[in-house]
Design brief:
With 718 residues, the protein is α+β, with helices and mostly antiparallel strands. It is built from 15 helices and 20 strands. Helices cover 33% and strands 13% of the residues. The radius of gyration is 28 Å and the shape is globular.
Length: 718
């Protein structure tokens, strides 16, 4: 994701006019730290969440419309004692200082053993120095009224909370129970000779293994990352969404249980959903070549606008959603950009360039901020667009940059944390196989389409003419002594062995022995070290898309399109490409999310069965977490009551939480009632009134029930 960050940096520099808020500055530091740390999506979703809590809780202490999430409350089984805070310092300065010390203290603890510790600490020390803050100040006596002590106390409490939240942070997040069923697949040899359980995850043995953040992992055999993460204390997930699966010595906690993935069946060929899905991964890899003659319109005019209602509901319906041979999904696209009123312009690009770039763009490549961090980066990109009006849910008053950042980070952080808990709880329990293991395993057995052929095996890979076939005599792959006759061959991406110089070479597509199949990844990485089902990318991305849609009150990117420039021959990391420059474009956040999901199939990381359940779960978590998060500030407003916009010329909104039939009354400065109407509140506890007939001037708005005034606020009509 390094190039993505670089592109965003260039774009943001051109757009940002005003200094960034302190919340934004610390969020950038967290993202920088993640890029320099080990690639651990679960751990970093948690880091992003806890740092967002630190910033939000300080904000809430100084904001009468908000209430803290952690300070003074019990979260999970941890109670954070807090006696309130008052200070004689300027609120703006006190808030800035307390936020800085809170995140700084948390980061010093969380990244103390990071391989990029030196760069991380140099950067955050420099930021504190630029603020004029003493990094050696450690006092936590917040009762003295010192904002720095308040920040230190909050950091101390978040650290203590993290040491008991089920993550096993004290044990460096190592697994306490999980053991893989399969022996490792050695990627330096052909085939998959040692696998015993073709439905289960298999570790990889990769010489000089380099993780997604560019760190060399000793031994070249990384363990399953976070299979027990379901037991971590969540944000908004609750017991109604939880299924507990007991195993001897350990209970797996699974939120939003999608039930079993498709397991391999005997025979059936492409009618077996397991075989169909993994075969499709190989077929889609045949698109990863600049010489592929197919051209694609990759603009919003042709891609996107896929309704969640069109997602297949069971695995047997997947072949009507995905295009097995040509690739992609049933995107109808959109004709008109609603922001400009103009048609979206077509953008024809070679399919071989688009698919390679898409796989790389969303991949867990070197210097990656991992999927939860990707979406914080996208949020920051959105926040920097001049077309964005920072109204919460697209309504009410325009928020300051700080308030917008604080609330958006809090919501997205909690959402990403819940996704990690749900998705990795599912991954740990179902322990599902990855494409490199499944494709090589099936090919080692033979083919499962033609029972009359000598190559038939019930667990064999299905034959697909022109894409998956049996090697015959006279075939260039038959070998000098026909030693490969009867084996399976694939027309697919040829793999890293065909790349010597990544700056000049391209592997291309052609016929290879299936036993040598590789996903579209670096040979030192191959595939992420955890089970496939469900796709973390699909779940993180759809949840984030729902959050951004709700947050902005608009499903579209600002201006009607998110745009990222892809330069010719420079973007791809492990081979040369793309052959032409173009733009990645998405009309909506959900469109971007859907393309993320498809990228993982083209990249050889997930079959379709990993994708759709992740999208559906992500959509649920995104909306649930958003509602839960906003209750900490919108809920406080509704309990007390509020009117907006104020001043107003015509439409007045009244926000109040009640189950009683209320009346809205407006009085002039002489106490005369000049307006009255029964309050009809919508499902967001808001009532809209047309007061355009009132003369300009000062009024008082009151909500009344029987003889009681429940709420009164001054109004300026102009």
């Amino acid at each position: 994701m390094r190039k993505f960050f670089f592109i965003l940096t260039l774009f943001v520099v051109g757009q940002s006019v005003y200094p960034q808020s302190v919340a934004r500055q610390w969020n950038e530091e967290i993202l920088n730290a993640i890029r320099n740390d080990f690639a651990r999506p679960t751990v970093h979703a948690r880091n992003l969440f806890h740092s967002s809590v630190a910033i939000y809780d300080i904000w809430a202490l100084f904001d009468p419309d908000s209430k803290p999430y952690f300070l003074g409350n019990t979260v999970g089984e941890y109670s954070c004692n807090f006696d309130g805070f008052s200070t004689e310092e300027d609120i703006v300065k006190a808030r800035h200082e307390a936020m800085s010390y809170a995140v700084y203290g948390l980061m010093k603890h969380r990244f103390a053993d990071s391989p990029g510790k030196e760069d991380i600490f140099t950067s955050i020390d420099a930021l504190m120095d630029s603020f004029g803050y003493d990094i050696n100040f450690r006092n936590t006596n917040y009762k003295s009224g010192n904002p720095a002590a308040l920040g230190n106390y909050l950091a101390e409490q978040l650290i203590a909370f993290g040491l008991q939240d089920g993550s096993n942070e004290a044990g460096d997040y190592e697994n306490t129970f999980y053991e893989p069923l399969n022996d490792p697949l050695d990627t330096d040899i052909t085939g998959n000779p040692d696998i015993m359980f073709p439905n289960n995850w298999q570790p990889l043995k990769v010489e000089n293994y380099v993780d997604q953040s560019g760190n060399i992992i000793p031994g070249g055999q990384p363990p399953f990352l976070s299979p027990e993460w379901g037991k971590v204390t969540p944000f908004s997930l609750n017991s109604d969404q939880l299924t507990v699966y007991p195993k001897p010595g350990f209970d797996y906690l699974v939120y939003h249980d999608p039930r079993d993935p498709p397991y391999i069946q005997d025979g059936l060929g492409l009618d077996d959903p397991y075989k169909w899905g993994f075969a499709m991964v190989s077929v889609w890899a045949s698109h990863l070549d600049k010489n592929d003659p197919t051209m694609m319109d990759i603009s919003p005019r042709s891609l996107g606008n896929v309704s969640i209602d069109s997602y297949p509901t069971d695995f047997e319906d997947y072949d009507s959603f995905y295009t097995f041979v040509e690739g992609g999904d049933p995107s109808p696209g959109r004709e008109i950009n609603p922001s400009t009123g103009m048609p979206y312009e077509s953008q024809l690009v070679p399919r071989g360039d688009y698919t390679r770039v898409l796989a790389e763009f969303w991949a867990d490549g070197p210097d990656s901020e991992t999927p939860p961090g990707h979406w914080f980066t996208i949020l920051n990109y959105v926040n920097d667009q001049p077309q964005l009006v920072k109204k919460f849910r697209g309504k009410g008053d325009v928020l300051s940059d700080l308030e917008w950042d604080v609330k958006s980070y809090f919501i997205l952080g909690g959402t990403m944390h819940d996704v990690a808990i749900s998705a990795w709880g599912i991954k740990g329990y179902y322990d599902y196989i990855r494409p490199i293991s499944a494709i090589r395993y099936m090919a080692d057995q033979g083919q499962s389409t033609d029972p009359n052929d000598a190559s038939y095996d019930p667990h064999g890979i299905p034959l697909v003419p022109n894409y998956i076939e049996v090697v015959k005599e006279g075939d260039p792959l038959a070998g000098a002594f026909n030693e490969n006759v009867g084996k399976i061959k694939l027309f697919t991406w040829r793999g890293p062995d065909f790349i010597v110089d990544p700056n000049e070479d391209e592997a291309g597509v052609g016929w290879i022995l299936a036993e040598e199949w590789f996903p579209y990844q670096r040979p030192s990485f191959v595939t992420p070290p955890f089970a496939g089902y469900v796709s973390g990318h699909s779940t993180f991305s759809r949840a984030a898309a729902e959050v951004l849609t709700l947050l902005t009150g608009d499903e579209y990117f600002p201006g009607g399109m998110g745009v990222f420039d892809i330069p010719k021959d420079e973007f791809l990391k492990f081979e040369k490409g793309p052959s032409v420059p173009f733009q990645l474009q998405w009309a909506t956040y959900r469109d971007a999310s859907d393309q993320t999901s498809l990228s993982r199939i083209w990249g050889g990381i997930h079959p379709p069965c990993d994708d759709i359940p992740g999208r559906i779960i992500g959509a649920r978590i995104g909306t649930d977490a958003f509602s839960f998060a906003e209750s900490y500030f919108v809920g406080a407003i509704l309990e007390r009551g509020r009117i907006y916009p104020n001043p107003t010329a015509d439409i007045l909104n009244v926000a109040f939480k009640t189950d009683q039939p209320l009346e809205v009354c407006i009085y002039d400065t002489l106490g005369r009632k000049v307006y009255t109407e029964n309050a009809v509140f919508d499902n967001e506890d808001r009532c809209s009134l047309d007061i355009s007939a009132l003369r300009d001037g000062l009024y008082f708005v009151s909500l009344e029930w029987e003889d009681r005034r429940l709420f009164t606020e001054r109004l300026v009509k102009k």
